[in-house]
Amino acid sequence: MVHVATCAGDVVGDENQHSVDNYAIVIDAGSTGSRCFVFHVVIDEEGDRGVTGHPCGKVVPGLSSFLSQPEEAGPYLAPLLINAAEIIPASKHGSSHVYLKATAGMRLLAAADQRVIFDEAAKWLREADDIPFPIADRNVGTINGHEEAYFAVIASNYIHGSID
Q1: Active-site residue flag, 127
Q2: pLDDT tens for residues 8-33?
Q3: Which of 58, 28, 26 is nearest to 40 (CA)?
Q4: DSSP 8-state code for residue 88
Q5: pTM, whole model, 2 decimals?
Q6: Which of 46, 71, 120, 148 is catalytic?
Q7: Which of 9, 34, 49, 121 is the most exposed place for a label (fewest CB within 10 A)?
């Protein structure tokens, strides 16, 4: 969730007053399935921040199961992004970042096998007529165990109300 707050978006106003209205899509590609969340980040003219999250679906099985048919990884993920497109205003589709981050299931595969699955998924999603979001290669990949733990700590502290 930390990366969501730093995503690029629209900044309007003069040099003293800025407002930000951004959306980001996070696909958590776990070992048993992939879950999608849309985050809406708003920073008003006074600098007050707000982040809201909206679940937009889960698909099964895990992304790593597409090793023998990597060309099916994109169609597998498409329903999640189609759902996200219904949540995010059309005017924000082109500036909404997609983060496809895999965890333990993909870590079990060789790096070259992971790359094949990610490359096939990203290629298919970029070419799909009903996916309106840019898919940047830098936002697609497997996170390591330390990163996964870090995000879990951030999420649990946010849910607990220890951080905002």
Answers
A1: no
A2: 333 333 344 457 899 999 999 999 99
A3: 26
A4: S
A5: 0.83
A6: 148
A7: 49
